[in-house]
UniProtKB/TrEMBL annotation, chain A:
NCBIfam families: hisS. GO terms for biological process: histidyl-tRNA aminoacylation; mitochondrial translation. It catalyses: tRNA(His) + L-histidine + ATP = L-histidyl-tRNA(His) + AMP + diphosphate + H(+). This is histidine--tRNA ligase.
UniProtKB/TrEMBL annotation, chain B:
Its EC number is 6.1.1.21. Gene3D superfamilies: Bira Bifunctional Protein, Domain 2, S15/NS1, RNA-binding. One of its GO terms (biological process) is mitochondrial translation. GO terms for molecular function: ATP binding; histidine-tRNA ligase activity; identical protein binding; RNA binding. This is histidine--tRNA ligase. Residues 4-41 form a coiled coil. Belongs to the class-II aminoacyl-tRNA synthetase family. Residues 61-417 form the Aminoacyl-transfer RNA synthetases class-II family profile domain. GO terms for cellular component: cytosol; mitochondrion. It catalyses: tRNA(His) + L-histidine + ATP = L-histidyl-tRNA(His) + AMP + diphosphate + H(+). It is an enzyme of class 6 (ligase). PROSITE patterns: AA_TRNA_LIGASE_II, WHEP_TRS_1, WHEP_TRS_2. Residues 3-59 form the WHEP-TRS domain.
């Protein structure tokens, strides 16, 4: 913090006790700090004061959410609900069940599972009981759940928030509390059928979310390892060369090759050989061609991976998704726990790599996914065994849908669209233009509720018709049911279309049906 | 940090404890708890690897929801949310943790039950304790003066499980609140209509909603001769009338709280009163009560409330009950509590006690509670701007444990499975239909659709299959 900042803080400290917050803007301009910087320093000041003020807390106004977290307002919730509804409906169509786990786990459960990222785990304070931490993803809790309940077979989805103490300076816009949406099939089954179903599900979801064109890249850990072996990469460099290959979605081959040779110590020959393979893309045909490759086919791992890839594509053909699935030898992903097939779905309209967005929070595994990606996953047969005392294996394959990325795309769409996002589903407002009709309005509203109609009434004894109509326009209520002395005598209700302003008198007994007809 | 030798000693001792419990055939719960402690000690010894230590349990007071429980949960939420939407409510969501100061000073004695996050160099944080304080913070932060919102989410309380068996530390709350300055009692009445609709639709049997008013209670205490400074404490004693008989409640008032018998008897006359709009009218004629400003205001509003409840057609299950007290810390007007007619005996502690949005909780048998709280949001606003609020918290956890679930359809993965195991799978999971493929059927362009329960089979043309399944599974 610069000297100027310190001075303005002392000024604040002196003034806060006597003047209202209104005077602060004056100081803000003179100090040259940005508004959000000032808010941050003010918050720290208030925190300190709060400690001084004791437990009262009444006179200290700390009006902010924790760093890296945010409230969801009704508009955002409406978008969120729509997205979840589409995704969950797809999971259910495929017979998946859902589970939920606690927001915190025993610290030991999470320890040792996330490598370097472990420092990003939120711990709970030691308050005399068990040591706890907030969950970092949904995969480790899933493995713990399977082992704890001795479950060998399950097809489950899990949508919930996870927590990571990311450093906001490095990654602008990254949240510390964010949603993950995982789908996994656990169990020993005949090869590649569940793997194919995962891809079918990603395909269906991305279609239904209407996000434009997309591609799903697939590859296989065994093919990658086999490929590295036949190219001459030393065993101990497999992982590190893998992360370099992973950068091909952001960097050109020349730069990737430079990193392999200059930073990771590969010879140019080896790098070139890798380069030939990783530029290959195709479908079942590519798998068949590579099975004819004399070097690759001799490598056990690669052979197994390629055979399964061929089988996978035959199933994808039956599932009618091959138009958007590509076998891409440059796909690497975070390979720490993947043991077989890996895949990543990318929208064709991608954001340039220089823009950091919550996109990087997509993906259930620690490695994250690249910008433009909206889903990622693969097979991980060894994870559950780490939790089982007898080391019993439960093979798993799954995918994580990049919900946060999808949220921000949908939010942007909503902003630019002329159609307003409704935050309520109200079909009709019960109104009156005349005075002293509150009782009649309440009575009719109650009748409508009892008939299952979504209705509102203003909490005012004698509201003006204009303000009632304004309420409809602001919140998107399509109909208004207007009561008046004459209408009551005649046993009718004036039903008005808010947009078109057309009105018609409807017999009271027919009102419910009429509303249903007009609001589907 | 214990040094290695001490740790090993502790492990040895704890190992003994586990062995003893097992040989004594102690309860599974107890054994699991002591085994977990043992594993935790071993984990400290083993360092950060964690690979060879199998701590297979959820944190104390928390639980996973398996698919069956999730199905029930979804059904319950669906009914409740559909009701909120029918009344034009929006929804919001807030983070699972707040700044520690946001929660400080809001929960009185219960503050010690708040989960804090470790100081890891940043802001001091705590897990939310309820949904009401985050709501007030949200309104003040966004300078919102009017909103009708529901919020369903988990909250966290470090309850002492020894005292309250079965109480979870992570549990759902389901809040509905109307914030804003409006004409008296209309939103209050709508809250009650919503509780009524929800409890009907959940099909939990008969129920009653008790209503009272903080001003009526305070006025009543005043005219009975309770000293001002004893209002709160006498209130908590009156609150026990749903669990204790009047004689015991009176004893507590006189012996423990220092009221004279006369005063206690006068209270006794009032708190035995129950009724509807008629009772409000009768009490407005009571010479003492009607002279008390607070009571008069409360009774006038109660009369108005019942006139609206009449129009909303809910008076058959709403009772004006002068013995209803609830946790009155932030309530300023009407208060209410919904109780199922088939209640559990008071001796059984259940997650029922976690119902209710406020710290005071509700009594066993209760499935919803709430009231008007006009002063809370002002505590968060720097200018002290008031935003009047009225709301209700539905006792979701209690409702979960009362309901039942449904089945779903699936596809089996085996390429060459036995038909029998497929049919058995249907029977086990409750799948009602099975669509059987065979060489002949494929040639003929039909699918054999079999009713699992009746075993009746019919050949359905492939093109008609979707409609036929929909017809049969509604």
């Amino acid at each position: 913090m610069n000297a100027l900042g310190l001075v303005s803080m002392r000024l604040c400290a002196g003034l806060m006790g006597r003047r209202s917050a209104v005077n602060l803007p004056f100081l803000r301009f003179s100090s040259g700090m940005t508004s959000s910087q000032i808010d941050e320093e003010v918050a720290k000041l208030l925190q300190l004061k709060a400690q001084l003020g004791g437990d009262e807390g009444k006179h200290v106004f700390v009006l902010k959410t924790a760093k890296g977290t945010r409230d969801y307002n009704p508009k955002q919730m409406a978008i969120r609900e729509k997205v979840f509804s589409i995704i969950i409906s797809c999971f259910k169509r495929h017979g998946a069940e859902t589970i939920d786990t606690p927001v915190f786990e025993l610290k030991e459960t999470l320890t040792g599972k996330y490598g370097e990222d472990s420092k990003l785990i939120y711990d709970l304070k030691d308050q005399g009981g068990e040591l706890l931490s907030l969950r970092y993803d949904l995969t480790v809790p899933f493995a713990r759940y399977l082992a704890l309940n001795k479950i060998t077979n399950i097809k489950r989805y899990h949508i919930a928030k996870v927590y990571r103490r990311d450093n906001p300076a490095m990654t602008r816009g990254r949240y510390r509390e964010f949603y993950q949406c995982d789908f996994d099939i656990a169990g020993q089954y005949d090869a590649m059928i569940p793997d194919a179903e995962c891809l079918k599900i990603v395909y269906e979801i991305l279609n239904e979310l209407d996000l434009g064109d997309f591609r799903i890249k697939v590859n296989d850990r065994r093919i990658l390892d086999g490929m590295f072996a036949v190219c001459g990469v030393p065993d101990e460099k497999f992982r590190t060369i893998c992360s370099t290959v992973d950068k091909l979605d952001k960097m050109a081959w020349e730069d990737v090759k430079k990193e392999m040779v200059n930073e990771k110590g590969l010879s140019e020959d080896v790098a070139d050989r890798i380069g030939e393979y990783v530029s290959m893309q195709g479908g079942q045909d590519l798998a068949e061609r590579l099975l004819q490759d004399p070097k690759l086919s001799q490598n056990k791992q690669a052979f197994a991976g390629l055979t399964d890839m061929k089988l996978l594509f035959s199933y994808l053909e039956l599932f009618q998704v091959t138009d958007k699935v590509v076998f891409d030898l440059s796909l690497a992903r975070g390979l720490d726990y993947y043991t077989g097939v890996i895949y990543e779905a990318i929208l064709s309209q991608t954001i340039p790599a220089s823009v950091s967005t919550p996109a990087e929070q997509n993906g259930a595994d620690e490695a994250g996914v690249s910008v433009g990606s909206v889903a990622g996953g693969g097979r991980y047969d060894g994870l559950v065994g780490m939790f089982d005392p007898k080391g019993r294996k439960v093979p798993c394959v799954g995918v994580s849908i990049g919900i946060e990325r999808i949220f921000s795309i949908m939010e942007q769409k909503a902003e630019t669209s002329s159609e307003k996002v409704r935050t309520t589903e109200t079909q009709v407002l019960v109104a009156s233009a005349q005075k002293n009709l509150l009782e009649e309005r309440l009575k009719l509203t109650s009748e409508l509720w009892n008939a299952g109609i979504k209705a509102e009434v203003l909490y005012k004894k004698n509201p003006k018709l204009l303000s009632q109509l304004q309420h409809c326009e602001e919140t998107g209520i399509p109909l208004v049911a207007i009561l008046g002395e004459q209408e009551l005598k005649d046993g009718v209700v004036k039903l008005r279309n808010v947009a078109s302003r057309e009105e018609v008198d409807v017999p009271r007994a027919d009102l419910v049906d009429e509303i249903k007809k007009r609001t589907l």
